[in-house]
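Let's practice the habit of predicting before peeking. Look at the sequence and jot down your guess about where helices and strands might fall. Then scroll down.
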Amino acid sequence: MVLCLVGILQVLVGSKKWKQIKLFYIAFYVGLFNYAASILAGIMLWKQEGAFAHFMLYFSYFNEAVWGFFLTAVVLRRILYHIDPERKTREVRILRRVTTALFFLQLAVLVGYNIVCYYFEMFPGNAAVHGDGVLVLLFSWGLSFCIAVYALIRFGKRLPRYLLLSFVTFCITTGIAFVLHFIFYGIHFRSLSTAVCALVVYLFSLNESAEALVAKERENEKLKVEVMLSQIQPHLIFNSLTAIKHLCRENSAAEKAVADFSRYLRGNMDSLNSDEPIPFDRELLHTRAYLSLEKLRFNDALTVAYDIQCTSFSLPALTLQSLTENAVRHGVRGTKDGRGTVTIATGEYDDRYEVTVSDDGKGFDTSELPEPEAHIGINNVRYRLENMCGGTLTITSVEGRGTVAVISIMKE
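Done guessing? Here is the structure:
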């Protein structure tokens, strides 16, 4: 009961955006609280003398059955809501209606059975014994369970894993406790099952709240990018560059420089809208455009070497380009004479692909942070590698001899 109260509080102070999800958790916690309270009342009122105790024990048994059916209906409707939130699938709409109708039918049967004492009988000394009607109600609960199993088999692929686990936990613990209650009548397995259900659902609600927060942060970041792109007006930039390129036809070097800059700029802008890894060939093409521009600036002071052994893998956009830019700006250009070589290599191994960006520049002490700008770029690359494709970034450097950055992407 305490776990239910904590869960309700956690839901109420959470995000107001997910109204349907909040309503489910509140309904579930309220139902579970009342179910547990009914069990507790039955324990406390068992064989207590007096008319009031007799009436309250009678009411607690009835209430326990009502909230048990209510919980099953709430969980089932939650599953059906997640399967089809917009109610576009006719079959799911029918299942929702059947679930609601079955709950009210169970409620009506329960009321009728209590009137004729078919659900349980009260004896002198304020003791209650379940009657044959329990089997009918158990069968009706089984119908709800069958609807849930059918929905999971038919539409289970649409559900997130945590919802499947929470449903399975609820059904298994409730079903086992219900059966064991009749075998070992003196042990309150249902009390234990309610605590387990409350704890599991509470943990999953925390997980769902965390996922909602992450989704909201990603949405905010996406909106920031869209605003930035709208201010940049990329079509105007590309059209202007195309016009300048035509004006440079007589100077092939100038025409190539404008083409490389246009390709580089387009690659940067495309990466802002990319939230999935891209083919290595595409990232390499973008990096080549960047290095062509740097070669135009530094001429023979910058040497670029390639050792591309494989390209059949993907990685986050701007990872290779960012590491190459660091090698040029903070490695080669950081030397006394501003000269050096940047080498890009790829290799395939049994369990992974590797991309290596090395330079023979000034290097740095790895125990100390490099320049702030380079440090931010490295952290960004490492974060995107880890979260987008499970990759890693390893950097080794020796002062006066250069730096080696290795991207590892597991084949699995």
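How did you do? Strands lie at 120-123, 127-130, 278-279, 302-308, 314-315, 340-348, 352-359, 392-398, 402-410.
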